[in-house]
TrEMBL record:
It comes from Salmonella enterica. Residues 1-24 form the signal peptide. This is DUF1318 domain-containing protein. Keywords: Signal. It comes from the Bacteria.
Amino acid sequence: MKFTTRFLLTSVLLLSTGSFAVYASDISMANQCLAYGKRVMKDNQEMMTLLSQAKINEESVQINNYSKALGKQFISTELVAKIHSDQEQPGNILCLFESDDKPLYFHLTLME
């Protein structure tokens, strides 16, 4: 009985630690996406103002593994996340990644 209880507790701890690591990784990728968006939009002052105030809604981060060619470009991951700003301007960001650390495409959709 003691073995079963210890096994269950250990399993729960390991599972929760693993899911936290995945969650932290997802948030890190979302931050990479937002940073890439700022680099892409650096010449658009209005977009830079909005993106510099943007905060990622951490619970909304969704990672989709794709791992296929889109035309001639290989895409491994799609990231979608909701953002908000101090101006209460909600929106969604989307990034396509060649690998987990190399964003290739950024798109912002504002909700009005």
